[in-house]
Q: What sequence folds into this?
């Protein structure tokens, strides 16, 4: 069901890889709600995914950009404003990568060159995106910037590895840059801490199926899906949430406030 929540609004969506990704679902929902946007991803990711099919479906254009490159980001922002016909109303940062996770390096045995690369892609890129938007005065007043995160930024999930550190930094950047963006440009910046979601990126984490099953049993409403997250993101892009900023918003079926649930306890009670 569409409510025209984003009619006339323009934006940039980072990270749509395939139909399982949250960014992909968000792009579809933004389109349904009347928003227009540019799609972007790193050139290597674009070769792996089907972003062109999403662009065709949503009437969007694709601009390849390495989110760690200021030159690429400047080109992306300038071209996006040309294509969209003015300043931007919303941005989704849905980017994360850990070479240590991909290569199976334990948290206690990191390759620090890989660690730094992952931090640059997963967290520092968010600062670079916002700095580029800020310096180019590319955002309309009451615009909205959202990044996706995970609860491992606050609690220990052993196999989430260095991505937990990346997400903690990402959330800190959202708060710190969000202050200046709000004060100077009336732009809001938030992060969504989503349930474990079976995306291409998430499936690379060891034991991720266990994460999903455990969270499902712990959460009173069950896990939030990628589509659920897309709907929540639309609400944050809309004018209905104008005074929400600097928040890390848990979108996890209640998991973040649970100590234990009956369903989890049943696994430990002797019959």
A:
């Amino acid at each position: 069901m569409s409510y025209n929540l984003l009619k006339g609004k323009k934006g940039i969506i980072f990270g749509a890889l395939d139909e399982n990704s949250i960014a992909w679902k968000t792009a579809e929902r933004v389109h349904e709600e009347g928003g227009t946007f540019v799609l972007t991803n790193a050139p290597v990711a674009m070769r792996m995914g089907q972003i062109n099919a999403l662009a065709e479906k949503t009437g969007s254009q694709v601009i390849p950009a390495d989110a760690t490159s200021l030159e690429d980001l400047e080109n992306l922002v300038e071209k996006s404003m040309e294509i969209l016909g003015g300043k931007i109303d919303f941005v989704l940062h849905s980017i994360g990568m850990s070479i240590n996770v991909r290569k199976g390096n334990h948290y206690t045995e990191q390759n620090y060159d890989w660690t730094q690369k992952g931090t640059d892609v997963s967290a520092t890129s968010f600062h670079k995106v916002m700095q580029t938007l800020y310096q180019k005065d590319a955002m309309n007043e009451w615009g909205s910037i959202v990044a996706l995160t995970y609860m491992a930024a606050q609690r220990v999930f052993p196999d989430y590895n260095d991505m937990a550190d990346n997400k903690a930094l990402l959330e800190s950047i959202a708060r710190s840059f969000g202050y200046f963006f709000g004060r100077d440009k009336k732009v809001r910046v938030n992060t969504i801490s989503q349930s474990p979601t079976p995306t291409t990126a998430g499936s690379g984490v060891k034991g991720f199926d266990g994460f999903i099953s455990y969270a499902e049993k712990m959460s009173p409403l069950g896990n939030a899906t990628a589509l659920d997250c897309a709907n929540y993101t639309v609400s944050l892009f809309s004018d209905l949430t104008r005074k929400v900023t600097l928040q890390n918003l848990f979108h996890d079926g209640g998991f973040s406030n649970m100590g234990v649930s009956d369903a989890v306890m049943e696994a430990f009670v002797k019959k």
Summary: The radius of gyration is 18 Å. The first strand starts at residue 10 and ends at 14. The beta strands are 10-14, 36-40, 61-62, 88-93, 139-149, 188-194, 248-251.
